[in-house]
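Pasting as-is:
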Amino acid sequence: MAAGRTLETLMEAAGRAVADAILQRYAPRPVIVLCGPGNNGGDGFVAARWLRHATWPVRVAALGAPTGFAARMRAKWGEPIEAVSPQCLAGAELVVDALFGAGLSRPLEGAAEAAVKAIAELHRACVAVDVPSGLAGDTGAPLGVSAAADLTVTFFRKKPAHLLYPGRKLCGKVVVADIGTPASVLTDVGVDTWENGPGIWSLPEPGLEIHKYGRGHVLVTSGGPLDTGAARLAAEGALRAGAGLVTIGGPSASIPVLAAHVTEILLARLDAAEDVTRLLAERRRNVALIGPGNGVGARTADAVLAALRSGAKCVLDADALTSFADRRDELLQAVRLGTVITPHDGEFARLFPEAAKLGTRLARARAAAAESGAIVVLKGPDTVVAHPSGRAVINSNAPPTLATAGSGDVLAGFVAGLLAQGMGEFEAAAASVWLHGEAARAAGPGLIASDLHRTLPRILATLRGA
């Protein structure tokens, strides 16, 4: 409004956008629009007016008396208005939920709660304005009762609730409508959270005169002879992500097994922590990836500490994290800027018991990053990448097929491969998570972890317009 757009103009644009989204996706049917007393309800009155203009059979139910500009929108409706209740849903084949938006701070009660419960129980098709009523816009958590929407129409930018579970599921398909809010608002509100995607990072572009050492050299540590698969997946991920060279360092007994499976990847004996120090000092190895299939225990923990002392950038995953479940303070004291940790929920809870109690993945990842000083990749259906400064991205492109053995190992390899080329830690982690999701989507049903690094070149070619 300070930039010159009146609230009435914004409300008219928002309500029109809701109606347009409905008209584009549904055939005419009886509609009930549930309008709250505030601006969200004003949007609902405008949407009802445009649906009626399109000759749809529309009824409106209001919750209390609207105030401010919402009262003007109610006056423009000019038709009978019912009271919000479960009974008002009778005969409607589509519900437009314009009761409360993203700013709600307390559970629904009374008639609003009863109506929303009825939407859920009757399984009515529902279109939500901004967010489904009862959903906290900043966390994605229902404050009490909240009915799932098939479609949510929001304005200007998505809210955290559109990306964080369970809100992401409750919102259904999300449409972001431009209602004329100037982009300068983003600067004014101090945005520190983004939806992950290529618009917030750029991949390294090797020049024509680059050589393999100029693209970095990753050291991946392996477990014993029966546990080399995870390290191989991680190493192949690092190589596909663009690292010039990748070495797998493993116990002497593992080397023949590794040699039988890899071609482009170098091998080195790594029997003790001092071998980590030695290998990272040789052949310009600038990134260490420790954890996948390494085994939980003192050997892995010692390798982590040696890598952290070396000055190389480190990616710590899987067993590298669990090995410090009873030594978390020792790990946190050793972690330094340039470290990326990639826990799933179980590993996270062992390392960050207090942060694990926080309500959302976003809050948990931020707290852990601030406590550890590392870039935290908290994996899940709504993976969050958090920087110690509080910056964070929420990922939204990961399909459920990623729930397969080894996919996290490939992700850790992607991170290491991008770090090796000089990409910033936060950006490398964010890009890797997004590339991981895109590779999974491109691979399709039947995905196994090795499909991810094999599909990655296709994703990279698309990004670079090749």
